[in-house]
Design goal:
Shape: elongated
Mean pLDDT: 81
Structural class: alpha/beta
Strand order of the largest sheet: 1-2-3-5-7-8-10-12-13-14-15-16-18-20-21
Number of helices: 7
Distance between the termini: 105 Å
Helix content: 10-25%
Largest sheet: 15 strands, mixed
Number of strands: 33
Bound molecules: 2-acetamido-2-deoxy-beta-D-glucopyranose
Radius of gyration: 38 Å
Length: about 625
């Protein structure tokens, strides 16, 4: 009604201004009214003709020449012929989605220079030959998704030099020719989904120099190739979602990209593709949710210096190593809900003060002092959409699991500093080729983490080479070699503190002329001394070798005798005096952590250690 009134008023005004124009306008209106196809709704003002769901078998007659918007969606149209739209040169938007179109003749949209938006979605098109889109130089949006297209041919989009958005998803696409995307110079957004592609069409994609966002969903691609996205220099948003068989992600897969958001979700990746991401220094959002990723190691993401938001929900995370987020000083939002984490220590963060949202619900969290840090910033830290809960502990009263914050405020959280059972100085001696066992079993609450420092200053936190680190803290070296000798330091640590023990290992050299010579090292820093002969030295008859070896043996022998004298001397001086006993009193750190934890540490009052010095 209002529409009609305003039209009449406009008409009146115009006709007052110029009678001739008025007559012309009347003619047009009459023409439109008469030209509106049967069963369709026409609006002269917006110059649109809407024939949605009218069971039309063909393009209806009587569409006004000046039509701008034509909606023919959900009809029964079978084919598009070259002349079908030639009569409507002012068409800007054409919707042919949801018909039965099998074939589109080349030149079907010829002369439609003003066309901005074309949808051929949800038809039965099997092939779009080259020339179908000829002349649509002003087209910006094209949707050919949900058809039966098997192949995209070379140069088929050649004329679409203003196209910004292309949807080709939901087809039976098996292959995209290398030059298929040629000419799409300003394409900004491309969606490729639900196709039968078996690899990323990297040759075709390399023509899309203007591409800003690429969405690839529901693809059955098992492995990304190296340089899969080369020449996409402007790409900022990459989405890889629902690739259930993807398990290979080479380090150079994302080479050449400078992304700001990246999403790799619902794949079969069991490890974080850290090396492939490390060059993305402008990345701010990373979504790695719903991948079977099990662990995040130390400093794994350190290249992502601008990362603000990290989603790792629904993964299989059972551990996040200390300093895992080393380098991520802007991390604001961390979403690790629905994982298998028993805790999250503050040491994983580079700057915990930057954290605003921590979504950690649906994890089997153990509410012990490792989570105490959450209480220190109660006002600035949000738990997102769901409050995390503590998993039930053995011996604790049964009942519904309680919220982490309540638990931390209650008096049930205890911390006990690690205590190593073994004697403070151990001497271990083994034959070369045998296995050496260095024990270090520690108790504490939470369970301490055991690591070893080797004589060569290597830090062993897990098995490496000949060294196996058992869960009970024992370090096994098999087979032992002479150069393994030296002082090993075991450190057991948890949030409450740490304890350490030194183990001196001597490996008897059986292969040399001086077998059964045992050498104990007494100083870890000097343990790299090369006091032993090469382990594979042979019994050659070379006189020179024997002479040199004998000389070296004498020197070593003299050295050992001197050392023994020195020891005797030191011991005799110490005799008679009171032995140096050192008492160390330790107060667990957690006491100072939260103000309201009084009385929570009864089990861990000041602890006393007795160290004997020779
Ligand atoms: C694109 O459309 C504008 C009007 O919107 C028109 O002037 C121009 O000629 C068209 N471009 C081409 C190449 O036809
Ligand atoms: C594409 O995959 C679907 C489902 O896996 C299958 O039904 C269809 O036949 C495949 N198409 C081609 C062309 O291989
Ligand atoms: C995912 O990987 C596991 C082995 O790691 C394999 O058993 C499974 O079949 C894979 N899933 C798919 C969909 O390929
Ligand atoms: C990467 O992208 C950012 C914007 O997201 C831009 O500021 C920066 O210059 C780009 N770096 C390179 C090397 O192109
Ligand atoms: C991350 O990806 C998952 C799976 O595709 C999606 O459900 C979730 O909304 C994404 N999160 C964000 C913040 O985009
Ligand atoms: C965390 O991820 C889950 C699953 O994708 C999502 O439902 C939730 O909204 C996310 N939380 C935040 C704070 O983004
Ligand atoms: C540890 O030292 C105690 C005496 O202080 C001794 O009885 C015990 O046998 C030693 N244990 C080991 C494994 O050396
Ligand atoms: C720890 O486990 C290893 C392997 O199971 C075993 O050889 C070693 O004796 C154990 N250590 C202790 C102290 O029981
Ligand atoms: C080293 O000592 C063991 C006994 O401790 C002995 O059985 C062996 O024969 C000795 N080896 C050599 C090369 O003397
Ligand atoms: C190693 O031993 C040498 C003497 O053999 C001594 O001068 C040096 O200070 C020792 N180094 C350390 C770090 O103790
Ligand atoms: C041990 O030997 C290596 C070469 O085999 C040498 O570089 C190193 O300096 C030696 N270390 C000591 C403490 O003599
Ligand atoms: C002996 O050991 C050295 C290094 O320890 C090695 O380079 C050399 O190949 C070995 N020789 C034999 C015969 O095994």
């Amino acid at each position: 009604m209002v529409d009609c009134m305003s039209r009449v008023m406009l008409h009146t005004a115009l006709s007052c201004w110029h009678p001739l124009l008025g007559v012309a306008l009347v003619a047009v209106f009459v023409g439109s009214a008469m030209g509106c196809p049967a069963r369709c709704d026409c609006s002269a003002q917006s110059r649109s003709v809407l024939c949605h769901r009218k069971r039309l078998p063909t393009i209806p007659d009587g569409i006004p020449i000046e039509t701008r918007v034509l909606d023919l969606s959900k009809n029964r149209i079978h084919a598009i012929n070259p002349d079908d739209f030639a009569a409507y040169p002012q068409l800007e938007e054409l919707d042919l989605s949801g018909n039965n179109i099998i074939y589109v003749e080349p030149g079907a949209f010829n002369m439609l220079f003003n066309m901005h938006s074309l949808s051929l979605k949800s038809n039965r098109i099997k092939l779009l030959s080259q020339g179908v889109f000829t002349g649509m130089t002003n087209l910006t949006v094209l949707d050919i998704s949900d058809n039966k297209i098997v192949i995209l041919l070379d140069y088929m989009f050649q004329d679409l030099r203003n196209l910004r958005s292309l949807e080709v998803g939901d087809n039976d696409l098996v292959y995209i020719s290398h030059w298929a995307f040629s000419g799409l110079l300003v394409l900004e957004s491309l969606t490729l989904e639900r196709c039968n592609l078996t690899e990323v069409p990297k040759e075709a994609l390399s023509h899309l120099h203007g591409l800003i966002s690429l969405h690839m969903r529901h693809l059955n691609i098992g492995a990304l190739k190296e340089n899969s996205f080369r020449k996409l220099h402007r790409l900022q948003h990459l989405e890889i979602d629902q690739w259930p068989s993807l398990d290979t992600f080479p380090a150079s897969a994302l080479h050449g990209l400078n992304l700001s958001t990246l999403s790799i979700t619902n794949t079969n990746l069991t490890a974080l593709p850290a090396r492939a991401l490390s060059h993305l220094t402008h990345l701010t959002h990373l979504n790695l949710s719903f991948n079977p990723i099990r662990h995040i190691s130390e400093a794994m993401l350190q290249g992502l210096v601008r990362l603000e938001v990290l989603h790792l929900a629904g993964a299989h995370l059972s551990g996040i190593a200390p300093h895992a987020f080393h380098g991520l000083s802007h991390l604001r939002v961390l979403n690790i809900s629905h994982n298998r984490l028993d805790t999250l220590e503050i040491s994983v963060f580079q700057s915990p003060e930057a954290l605003r949202v921590l979504q950690i619900d649906h994890n089997p969290l153990v509410c012990d002092c490792r989570l105490m840090w959450l209480l220190q910033k109660p006002h600035t830290l949000s738990f997102g959409e769901a409050q995390p809960e503590c998993s039930p502990v053995e011996g604790a009263p049964r009942g519904r699991p309680y919220k982490v914050k309540e638990a931390l405020h209650s008096n049930h959280v205890t911390c006990i500093k690690p205590k190593i059972d073994e004697n403070k100085t151990q001497m271990v001696s083994v034959d070369e080729g045998q296995r050496a066992l260095l024990h270090c079993s520690a108790r504490g609450k939470p369970n301490p983490v055991v690591s070893w420092l080797t004589p060569r200053r290597q830090h062993l936190t897990r098995s490496r080479g000949r060294a196996t680190l058992h869960d009970n803290g024992t370090l096994e070296i098999r087979p032992a070699e002479t150069q393994d000798g030296g002082v090993y330091v075991c450190v057991a640590s948890n949030t409450a503190g740490n304890d350490s023990v030194r183990v001196s290992l001597a490996v008897k050299n059986l292969g040399s002329l001086y077998a059964n010579r045992t050498q104990f090292y007494t100083d870890a820093a000097n343990a790299t001394a090369n006091g032993t002969l090469p382990s594979n030295m042979t019994f050659g008859l070379d006189l020179k070798t024997i002479l040199v070896s004998t000389a070296m043996g004498c020197f070593t022998f003299l050295g050992v005798v001197l050392f023994c004298f020195l020891l005797l001397f030191v011991w005799s001086r110490g005799k008679g005096k009171h032995k140096n006993n050192i008492d160390i009193e330790y107060v667990p750190r957690s006491k100072s952590n939260g103000g309201s934890t009084d009385g929570t540490d009864q089990g861990a009052g000041p602890r006393r250690f007795n160290m004997k010095m020779i």
